[in-house]
Amino acid sequence: MDRRFIFAIVLFAAVATSSTDNTNTDDFIIRQVVDNEEDHLLNAEHHFTSFKSKFSKSYSTKEEHDYRFGVFKSNLIKAKLHQKLDPTAEHGITKFSDLTASEFRRQFLGLKKRLRLPAHAQKAPILPTTNLPEDFDWREKGAVTPVKDQGSCGSCWAFSTTGALEGAHYLATGKLVSLSEQQLVDCDHVCDPEQAGSCDSGCNGGLMNNAFEYLLQSGGVVQEKDYAYTGRDGSCKFDKSKVVASVSNFSVVSLDEEQIAANLVKNGPLAVGINAAWMQTYMSGVSCPYVCAKSRLDHGVLLVGFGKGAYAPIRLKEKPYWIVKNSWGQNWGEQGYYKICRGRNVCGVDSMVSTVAAAQSNN
């Protein structure tokens, strides 16, 4: 590894852990590691035309079109940088390639900072880990609904919450029911009055543990078909008589990855927070970036399984991974899923993990 590349990694780490969106600094770092930048962008116009066709993109004015083309070219370079620093995954053009980093965060993330736990949150008991399988996937067992799409709304926390409860409800009743994220967006405003900015706020963000607390207080959640998702904040239309799934308790799982795996196998899919810095350009494979801040959790997702290893030639060994269900539709990642390497809390995937138990409902 040459000194130039090491220097680039150090600089990239500084930016990746910064909370500001500094485009000039990003461009400087990109130029340190991307060789033949002009050659790389030679076919940018062709790529942009294909991008617009594939993702049905249109822009109202020529000025907007030209601006988005400029952002797209910057993201081509960013994707090449990500490929160098995350070689076990495939990075490239995605549905988010015409968005700046700040636009991407504002529109498609939305996990709030970790605050004090709600009143009813428990600590998950320590489980035995001696007989854990090498591979496990709740999708194969019928406990996971199809991938959903949050749209341009920072409601990832609501999808993580419903995904965990959908799995827990399946374990409790044997029935897989798609639950309403819009109910949480419109009706869940749980917060700690002593913590500024702690309230669940629809498209402006929230926290899964707050949402579990809301479900305990409200009596449960209705089906998706009875309270359809709009991707916008609205007035609460919750009808308690239509509740199909409710929470009996929820727990916070320790940082230990074996305990996370044991809770996943025993209790169903888990609500987790993650740093989504590498997800804007992710296409497939096991993401295991050299640098990713563990403390900057900004996206709520659902942990549904794990694998014993995907071969990574760059590191001459297999990389165990977590299987993550996302909420950006099936036209992102691996049909809506993300694989992230397991074993050292990459991107903070082990730092905010919750399990929920469902109560059998009358409906």
TrEMBL record:
Q: Which GO terms describe its molecular function?
A: cysteine-type peptidase activity
One matching Pfam family is: Peptidase_C1
Q: Which PROSITE patterns match?
A: THIOL_PROTEASE_ASN, THIOL_PROTEASE_CYS, THIOL_PROTEASE_HIS
Keyword Hydrolase in the entry? The reply is: yes
Q: Which GO terms describe its cellular component?
A: lytic vacuole
Q: Which GO terms describe its biological process?
A: proteolysis
Q: Report keywords, A-Z.
A: Disulfide bond, Glycoprotein, Hydrolase, Protease, Signal, Thiol protease, Zymogen
Q: Which residues form the Peptidase C1A papain C-terminal domain?
A: 132-357
The protein's matches in InterPro entries, at most eight in alphabetical order, are given as: Papain-like_cys_pep_sf, Pept_asp_AS, Pept_cys_AS, Pept_his_AS, Peptidase_C1A, Peptidase_C1A_C, Peptidase_C1A_papain-like, Prot_inhib_I29
Domain Cathepsin propeptide inhibitor residue range list: 48-104
Q: Has the keyword Phosphoprotein been applied to this entry? A: no
Signal peptide region: 1-20
PANTHER family found in the cross-reference section: CYSTEINE PROTEASE FAMILY C1-RELATED (PTHR12411)
Protein family (similarity comment): Belongs to the peptidase C1 family.
Q: What is this protein's record name?
A: Pre-pro-cysteine proteinase
